[in-house]
Every structure is written in structure tokens, then in C-alpha cells.
Amino acid sequence: MPVASIDFDRNEHYASFATTSRLVACLTSESLVPVYFIPASVETENFVGLCLLLRPVKDQEEKKVHQVTLDSILAVIPLRGLPILNTDATVNWNGIVCTHISLVDNLDMQPHIYSVVAGTGDKRNSSNDHAKQTLTSILSPSATLNEFHLQDSYDAVHMWHRFASDFEVNGKLQEQIGQELGSSINFQKYTYDHPKQLPGFESSTIAWEQSVVEGHATHPMHKARKSYPPMNALHPGSYDLEHPKIRLVGLPRQSAVLRGDYEELAQPLVDALFKAGGNVEQMRSEFADYVFIAIHELQLPNIEQKFPVAHIFPAQYSIYVEALASLRSVARPDILPGLSIKLCLGIKISSALRTVTPFTTYFGPGFSKIVPKLTYDRTVLYVERELGTISYRHEDSDVAKHCSSVVREAIEYSPEYKDELFIPCGALVEKIQRPDTDETLVTRVWSLDTNEKRVAFLESYVDLALRAFLPPCLENGVAFEAHGQNTLARFNRKTGELKGFVIRDFGGVKVHNETLRKSTGKELDVLPDSCVEAHTLDEVFKLLYHTLFHCQFQRLIRVLDLHYNGVGWAIVRNKMHQLIPKDHVMWPMFMGHEKVPGKCLVRMKIDELYRDYIYRPVPNMILFKPQQIPLA
């Protein structure tokens, strides 16, 4: 449904919708509130019914709701496509059969999220009449259309505070999460307000990295950039996050923990920073007992406060770099060909502060030595190793994580691969730099204008992705964090043909040590309490399902318009049948259960978790088949 331009700032409206729809998706999938599908009471184009969120009753979340009152409603969202329904859980309200919703996606929704307000409201806009009539159909017979109106643009901040009060989230945490949601809306609007030139086959990988419009498809803090003291407040436009400066910092050698070939690999970057500042020989002589680290300019207040022995060189010892999709990883191909640098950035971007923990800096170089032993097709998957790391020597990892760095392979910036195009998979499914469209970069750039073209593209994509990521999981007990930001699709630059994938970032992998040892003869080398070690194979499966199937395949299938008809998921199932033996221990995990563990992004925020995960059962999308609206 279009947004009326006379009543709305388009970008502000869609920015609110982008964040709020993701909050709705999480509240639904995590069973934090009762959510029901109300079938449309009127026939209207692109309207199948309503997604009705009811306010939570914390101790009765599983109990059936017998009657809906206006006060019990948290939000009302008109739907253009069917969400994932649990047909075993229905209620009958005023003679209308309403079905429990297990999963709802923002692409299921029209771009309107309503709150219920007493009174008749503004008569000028009748665009929600069909939604109001449908809602009225399930209310008690005494309810009338004049008792209430549906107010558009219900935003995530207000919805969160109403939910959090009902759910008894403590006040300080409630306010903090509300601020992060507000940051997400504000930065989303800024992105809409400043569209970029659309990338194509001839564009650089960096142009594709920086083409992200909305980011994570289900995380309600998908665009949050929330800084904390001693850093300055970060507002949209206050700093160019895509082209940041890095500054030179020296650490006394005894204060640094080095792993791998850090100094050798970082040397060209350190040289460039010294050269920018001048007095190179004098400075090197004066700091002969120091090791050097590049620090994101925004991170300097944390360095100054937490590490008094660190020497922050004057401002002229700096250079500009190009930020990748994660914002904290950067590249300068002219200085570090074939490499990228992961930096600390003490800003909450989506779920957590984007620092680099000692667990990560310790694990990466050691695991990189195991990578050649893993079972995977080298023609389909390239694993970018983490070749050198540095971190500050401190007994408190929450302090040390603010001063560390990772040097990793980045073949996308190597001259050897100049005839290939590497694109973050998440960028493929991004909108074409505007909010009010369903067209994405993958459909535009690859001219996927027919069903046959879309099916062929998906078949190739799913085949190569599963051939890339299933073997390490099945054979070695290794799940890479294969979501759209960490995974690069590798294309022939001239033809657009998909050749394979690249995986980067070892901070979120899961490895079952016993399976790794049996298959490779190698064991994990991790610090105590590292979260990468999986104690069961189920942990490995959960990570791969969430990142590859839920975050990556589901988004691609939806934007290719192959979800509701079931064609996309049938393609996935067929490939899974080919690649997983039925007697394999992981067959039932992927293919045998209607429900799988779903990662709970909001519950984790409420419990203030990042390195530990919370899961709740969600529908296994691999088994999805087309649905029908339940009849009375």
C-alpha cells in the first residue's frame, strides 16, 4: 500500500517501518507476545488479512486468548502475504477462525503498523478502512467502528516501551534498548535520505560493501550505531563511517599479545601511517620497543581512558580507509593488497559493541592452520584465514577487547582476482537505494525479470552454497557463520555467472572438537570460556541453520518471489537430499523436524547476552510448503 505523500515524510515513515517491522518479527518468533492471523473481511488487492499482536501476560504466554479487547491489542499490521501459520493453534473470535502466527517477515507486511487509539481520528485518510473493518470483525458484537481508529506509523520505540512495561523489563535496560531502537530508525532514515549510485558488474567490491540500505533482515537494531562515553554521541551525518580515518597507536611490546604474523603483515599499513605523519626515522628510533596498531579514529577516547601506557601519535599520523559492510572491518587495497583489517569500534551496531575480544584474536590464527585440513571443495569455497592478530595484555577481557586488531586474507582485494567480482551476499538482496520498492540489486543487476531466470539463479546459488558450507559441518563438525555479511558471492565479472563463495570472520564459528579431531587429527586451541567450541553437534547445526538457511536463503528466496509458491524451498530440499546421507547424524536435525531452534535476538537483549545465545522452536523453513488461509 503506498504512503500518502501529503501526510508523511516518506523516508521517515519507511525508516520507522523498517525497524518496527523487525521488532514485530522478533516478538512473534520468540513467542514474547500472542500473535494471530485475522483473515481479511473485505477483498482488496495485496491484502490477505491482519497480523494482530496482543499485549503480553508474562505468566500466561501459552494460554489461549478467549476475547480481544481494544486495550489488549499491542499492534495491528495489514499483510500482503501469508506469514507462517501454526494451524494446530486456532481461536474463534466472534465467529472468525484466527490462526496463531509462528513467523512473520517484514516482506509479508504492508508498510503500515497501526496502534489502536480511542475515538474516530482523522477522517482525511481512509487507506486503513479495510484493516479497521477486518479488526472489528473479531471484536465483541458491541464494538463499533466509531469507538476507535488505527493510527499509522506506530514506531518501534513506543511499541518497545509499551511491551517492556508489560513484560517488566527493568527501567534502565528498557531505556537503553529504546535508545538503540531510536538510533536504528534515525540511521535508517539517513541512509534513505542519501542514496548511492547503484553498483553493477564493473563496480568495485567496496562499492558493493557500501551499498547496504537496510542490513540484517530480522534484527530490530539493524541500523543502530549507538556510542557510549567516553566516546562522543554519534548522530546520523556526524561522522563518515564508510570512509573513516585510522590513527597510529604504539603499545609497549610487553603490553601486547601477538599471534601469527601480525607485525610482518601489518608493516605496510604502519609504514603508511608513519609516512603520513613525517619524522619517520626519529619516531621509529624513539619507539623502538613498541609494537604498532591501527585504531579507528572514533575509538581513540576508549584507548586514552583504558590504556594509559598506549602512545597515541598526533593526528597527522593517520590515513583514510574504506569501511566494509560491518563498518569495523576496513580495507586499503593499494596499501594492503589481498588483506583486510578488523578493528575495534566501541559502538553498538545491531546486537553488541563492535570490539574484538581476546578470545577472537587468540583463536583466529590457530584455527587458520586447521583450515587446510577441513573437508570442502576449494573450487567452490575460499576460506579467508586470519593470519595475524594483536591485543592488549590485560586480565579483564572486557577491557582488552577495546585495543586489538585482526589481519585477514581478502582475496577480493588481490590483483590475482581482478577479473572476478566479490559481493557480500547481504548486498545482493538489498533494495535499489530507495525504501518504497520491492526491487533489489540481484533482480535489477542480473535482469531476473522472469520466473525462469529467478529459478535458474536460485538453483545455482543454493547448489554452490550447500556444496560450500555443508561438508565442513557434516564431516568436520565446523559451522561457519555464513550470514550475508560474512559470506561473499564470487561472480565472473563479465558474464555475471556465480562461481562460488568466500567466507570470512572466525569470531562466530562453532566447532565440535571431537568431530574435528576424528576427521582432521587436529584439536581446537582456544582460551578458557571461548564461545566457539560446541559441546554438541546440535550447536553446530543451530548456527549453520540460523546463518545460512534463515538469514541467507530465506531472504534470497523471498526477494526472488519464490517463497509463497514453495518453489524456492523445494529447491533447497532437493539439494539437501542429494548432499546429506539419510543415515548421517545430522539428517534429522536439518530434515526430520518440523521445528528447529531459532535464535532469539530480543530475548538475548533483555537478558543482556551476546556471546551466549537463547533459542526457541521455530518452523523449519527447509520443509516449508505453500499454505492456505484456514477456513472456519
TrEMBL record:
InterPro entries the UniProt entry points to: Aerobactin_biosyn_IucA/IucC_N, IucA/IucC-like_C, LucA/IucC-like
One biological process term in Gene Ontology: siderophore biosynthetic process
Domain Aerobactin siderophore biosynthesis IucA/IucC-like C-terminal: 456-579
GO molecular function, one term: acid-amino acid ligase activity
Domain Aerobactin siderophore biosynthesis IucA/IucC N-terminal: 205-429
Membrane-crossing segments per the record: none
Coiled-coil intervals: none
Name of the protein described by the UniProt record: IucC family-domain-containing protein
